[in-house]
């Protein structure tokens, strides 16, 4: 079955950068649209970014546009989230997500597979 394993989270000061990685295994990576969601304390899980099977058509939540960049390397079965100009409100557990054979959108209930999450903490 599909497994998603995130890495790259940590503590960073406001204005800093982090790059998250998600390693995919178990099925054909290129058959899945990939994305990232996040969940802050006391908040609902929310969509961050998504990317199509071929690495095109990236889509972002408005609050991260211009700061975050999603990408994927199908040869490495890995999806990335480059996060720049981080803000304290970006603090959350970030989850890698996979959706098979359909466009990934902002609804968490559409996701087929989830990673266990990696914590990003942005200090002021």
Give an overview of the whole structure.
- This protein is mainly β.
- The protein contains no helices and 11 strands.
- Strands 2, 4, 5, 6, 9, 10 and 11 form a 7-stranded mixed sheet that branches.
- Strand 5 (46-51) and strand 6 (59-60) form a beta hairpin.
- The mean pLDDT is 95.
N-to-C terminal Cα separation, in Å?
A: 40 Å
According to DSSP, the number of beta strands is 11
Strand content: over 45%
What's the overall average pLDDT, rounded? 95
Morphology = globular
Sheet bearing the most strands, described? 7 strands, mixed
For the CA atoms, what is the radius of gyration?
13 Å
Key structural traits:
mainly beta, four-stranded antiparallel sheet, 0% helix, 50% strand
Short overview:
The chain is mainly β. It has strands at residues 3-7, 10-13, 18-25, 32-39, 46-51, 59-60, 68-73, 78-83, 92-100, 113-114, 118-123.
Topology overview:
Blueprint: E1 3-7, E2 10-13, E3 18-25, E4 32-39, E5 46-51, E6 59-60, E7 68-73, E8 78-83, E9 92-100, E10 113-114, E11 118-123
């Amino acid at each position: 079955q599909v497994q998603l394993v995130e890495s790259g989270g940590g503590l960073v000061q406001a204005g800093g950068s982090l790059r998250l990685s998600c390693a995919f295994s178990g099925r054909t990576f290129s058959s899945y649209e990939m994305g990232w969601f996040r969940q802050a304390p006391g908040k609902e899980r929310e969509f961050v970014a998504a990317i199509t099977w071929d690495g095109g058509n990236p889509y972002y939540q408005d609050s991260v546009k211009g700061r975050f960049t999603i990408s994927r390397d199908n040869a490495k079965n890995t999806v990335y989230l480059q996060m720049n100009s981080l803000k304290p409100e970006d603090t959350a557990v970030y989850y890698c997500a996979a959706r098979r054979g359909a466009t990934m959108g902002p609804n968490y209930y559409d996701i087929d597979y989830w990673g266990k999450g990696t914590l990003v903490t942005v200090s002021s």
